[in-house]
Design a protein that fits this description.
single chain, 499 residues, alpha+beta, Elongation Factor Tu (Ef-tu), domain 3, OB fold (Dihydrolipoamide Acetyltransferase, E2P), four-stranded antiparallel sheet, 8 helices, 28 strands, elongated
Length: 499
């Protein structure tokens, strides 16, 4: 596995060699006439075609119109399985060949548009007049790069576009000109080292309140602040009174409840009297029914008035006291929903407030959130439940250990980082919201990990790769999954074996 920066020079040289391949588009100008047949175009590139309509394109000049999964010969501008220069063993001399578009005549829909309509109905058989592309598995077994002596599907020089398609453990092979080329390029290799040190993913972190334990305390009715009984920083218990309001809405609701209670009691007495008279055959059935209906209506009105007070935040005990004392005052008490610390205050005596306006922010500081920003390359290794260790900047000896609870499924557009979150205990209250630090997400591992030098890991489109030596002149560009172990070492968690 090459472990020095000369790998980058190798990649650059390979890239340059690929860029030197002449590419041509539709209507590329005059070119020598081509002979009929399949195996006689070694000096021509299939670019002498044209289009009858302005702006029209085809699979030769527009890569997006090529068959998915079908290898393309960049050097000769045609499909690999139709390039008789590179793949002479695949040529079927019994089939007519369209030299202009480098396809068999019975599959060239550029010359025969009617083939497009029947393409899906034609069996995919090379011995028949099929227009369908060969499958990737067929291409991988039949296509062979004679120039670099590797399967065409694995040739990193001829098929560099497949680099981004590789999965961990898969590779493209790169063949040097000679066995001495690697030595002349200054490449050195080493074996991955097994280690019991737990791999981790580095991240920057910020301490935040645990928003699952934060409450914005707001009145449920409009009013004017009469008293503020606590201040910011106070530790409060569940149900403790924080603010006292003067509210005309509450006065109206209390009055309606007291009136409904008195009316319900009166209607109950009247109904019971009518029941007694009806039992003695003194009262009519109609009077009894009217008294019953009036009693039920009064009970419904009382229930509605009671529910209104509950909606304003009054407890059942407070409502029972109002009913007992017929208290119709305008006092509304705002209480803490649970035990915690008041971290923000907006309540001021004499201020008019409306429902939804936060008077206090209450937080349970026994746990905090660590908001993590993680490089995209390492985020794919993360999952909920992993341990997180963090060290706070600027505070000596302040650290935290918790558990990863969430990893975002999207990358931040500005920072190009992946956000994640961990919950950490804060029993001593030393962690403060807004603190910054560095964190390590510890990766679970069932055995030793493989460590490689950090400079041996190459990146393409934010994905890590290493070069694996197969022979003196043959290297594999292999997709791996890595995590930071130390500043100079990466831990490979997938895609590489100890040998």
């Amino acid at each position: 596995m090459p472990s020095f920066s000369s790998i980058r020079r190798l990649v650059g040289l390979l890239a340059c060699s690929l860029l030197l391949v002449p590419l041509s588009g539709c209507g590329g100008g005059d070119s020598p006439p081509k002979e009929e047949g399949g195996g006689n175009e070694s000096s021509q590139v299939a670019d002498a075609h044209s289009h009858s309509k302005a702006g029209e394109t085809c699979f030769i000049c527009d890569a997006s119109k090529r068959d998915a999964g079908r290898l393309w010969c960049t050097e000769h501008a045609r499909y690999e399985d139709r390039c008789w220069i590179c793949q002479p063993q695949l040529e079927d001399k019994t089939r007519l060949y369209c030299a202009e578009h480098s396809l068999y005549e019975d599959e060239c829909f550029l010359c025969h548009p009617e083939l497009k309509e029947t393409e899906s109905e034609t069996p995919d058989d090379e011995s028949s007049s099929s227009s369908g592309p060969p499958t990737e598995s067929r291409a991988s077994t039949e296509l062979f790069c004679n120039e670099h002596q590797v399967p065409e599907l694995e040739c990193g020089i001829c098929q560099p576009q497949r680099t981004a398609e590789l999965k961990p453990g898969e590779e493209l092979k790169v063949r040097f000109e000679s066995a001495e080329s690697a030595t002349k390029a200054g490449l050195r290799t080493t074996s991955p080292q097994e280690s019991e040190v737990q791999a981790s993913v580095s991240a920057v972190c910020e301490v935040q309140y645990n928003e699952n334990a934060v409450a914005r305390i707001t009145p449920l009715a409009a009013g004017i602040v009469r008293r503020v009984l606590v201040d910011v920083g106070s530790e409060v218990e569940a149900g403790e009174v924080l603010v006292e309001l003067h509210s005309a809405e509450i006065a109206a609701a209390r009055t309606a409840f007291v009136s409904a209670a008195v009316d319900a009691e009166l209607k109950k007495v009247s109904f019971e009297r009518e029941q007694g008279l009806a039992a003695k055959k003194i009262s009519s059935e109609k009077d009894l029914q009217e008294a019953s209906a009036a009693h039920r209506t009064a009970e419904l009105a009382l229930s509605t008035a009671r529910q209104r007070l509950l909606n304003y935040g009054l407890s059942a005990r407070e409502i029972a006291r109002i009913e007992e004392t017929t208290d119709a005052s305008a006092t509304l008490l705002v209480r803490a929903p649970y035990a915690g610390t008041l971290v923000e205050r907006a309540a001021v005596v004499g201020e008019a407030v409306e429902p939804g306006k936060a008077l206090f922010t209450l937080a349970d500081l026994s746990t905090m959130w660590l908001s993590l920003s993680i490089p995209a390359a390492g985020a794919q290794l993360l999952q909920s439940g992993l341990a997180v260790e963090a060290t706070m900047s600027g505070v000596s000896g302040l650290s935290a250990r918790g558990e990863l609870t969430w990893v975002n499924s999207a990358i931040d557009e500005r920072s190009r980082m992946v956000r994640a979150r961990a919950v950490v205990p804060n029993g001593d209250r030393r962690l403060k919201a807004g603190m910054f630090g560095e964190a390590q997400v510890l990766l679970s591992s069932s055995g030793p990990v493989l460590n490689v030098p950090a400079e041996a890991v190459q990146y393409f489109e934010n994905q890590p790769y290493v070069f694996v030596k197969h022979a003196e002149d043959l290297y594999g560009l292999r997709r791996v999954v890595v995590a930071r172990s130390t500043d100079n070492v990466f831990a490979v968690t997938a895609g590489l074996l100890p040998n």
